[in-house]
Each structure stands twice: as structure tokens, then as C-alpha cells.
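Hello again,

I reread your note about wanting to compare the complex against the isolated chains. To keep things tidy I'm splitting this into two emails, and this first one only covers the full assembly. Below are the input lines as submitted, including protein chains and any nucleic acid or small-molecule components. They are followed by the predicted structure of everything together. The single-chain runs will come separately.
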Amino acid sequence: AQKVTQAQTEISVVEKEDVTLDCVYETRDTTYYLFWYKQPPSGELVFLIRRNSFDEQNEISGRYSWNFQKSTSSFNFTITASQVVDSAVYFCALSGSISNFGNEKLTFGTGTRLTIIP
Amino acid sequence: DTGVSQNPRHKITKRGQNVTFRCDPISEHNRLYWYRQTLGQGPEFLTYFQNEAQLEKSRLLSDRFSAERPKGSFSTLEIQRTEQGDSAMYLCASSLIKVNSGTGELFFGEGSRLTVL
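Full-complex prediction:
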């Protein structure tokens, strides 16, 4: 069985502070994908990143960065110099084993509500 | 707008009534997914289609739920004899998947919120 744990239910930081959202996952698959999605108040899930299990390189995209550590089964997300527009619920997700046609059946965590205080 | 479209956005119904939600995916996408999200939780997988074929259904999808994608384009999710526990946001997502391309990016719609009184 797959499981994604986001232990931080809610986080509030003052604008311009850095913030890290934690994600720990469990899977028996040797090949899998990890994702982060943002859900603003409008409700639409916005894709942020996909990382496969063979690529442990950290990634940076603007103010966003991701730290994938297979040894600790963690895929943490850091926002640098946070802005009010970053306020949203953030979900970490995991996909199952990959067939020839791929598999986007995602197991989501319970999300972290991030509030950026102006 | 070329994103995933869901209708209606909100539905309030009385217990025991039937409801139907529609999802129009991004036009060239061959995969379509339904997820359910309850308050304070992450989305949970319900079912997905590859073109018109329904390839997998979650155990969450009881006999009262049925999903179709008759022509491989739009999809409907019908809930019969609704119960209060069905109250949730129903999310649709689509993707373009090709052989040996691995996992594609899911594009989600804004969801259809169901309230069962």
C-alpha cells in the first residue's frame, strides 16, 4: 500500500520568510513518481513538479525548490522569500508502479495549508 | 478556455436523489481521471479512462456510482440515491499519455462540489 504523510496541517509565516513543507512517503514500488500540487481557494489543483524515483537531484524553479531524499523517503518543498500569492493548500502525491503506458493514479497526502501574512 | 471544464460547479440535492457531473477534458488528452476530495483531505482516486475504456475503479466507487466516457471525449459521473456521505468535491483531471512515456502531468478542473442534505 502507498501512503503520503504531510505532518504539517497548517503553517503561517510572514511575507518574505522562507518556508519548508514536509512530505514523507511509503511505497513498495521500486519505480514511482512524486508530485507537488498547489490548491488555491478556487479549488483547481495546479501542478508544480514531478520527480521520478531514479532522479534524486534537487530542483530549483524560481523561488521554489525541492529536496528529494530516497534514504529518508522524503520529498520536501521550500518556498524562498514567500509572497501572499503563495497562500494555498499544498499537496504532495505519489504514483504507483509504472506500466508501459504510465500511471497517474495518485495517492495524495492530507495537505498543508500555507498562509503568508503580509 | 482550453483547460479541463467541469459542470455544474455546485450542486445541492436531497438525500436519495440522483446527480450527474460532467467533465470536458483538454481536447487531445486520452486519459481522464475522477477524484473525490472531502473537507480537509487530499483527493482520492475514484476511476480513470483510457479513451473510452474504463481501466480501473477504486473500491471507493460503490454500486451507486457510475462513470462513462462514451466517445472518448467528455465523461459523466453519476451518483444514484445520494447519501450525506457523498458530499464532497468531485475533481476531474486529464492527461496525454504515450507508450513508454511514463507518468504524464495531470491537469485538473476546478471541481464540482456536491452537498447532500
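For quick reference: The CA atoms of residues 15 and 83 of chain A lie 5 Å apart.

B.
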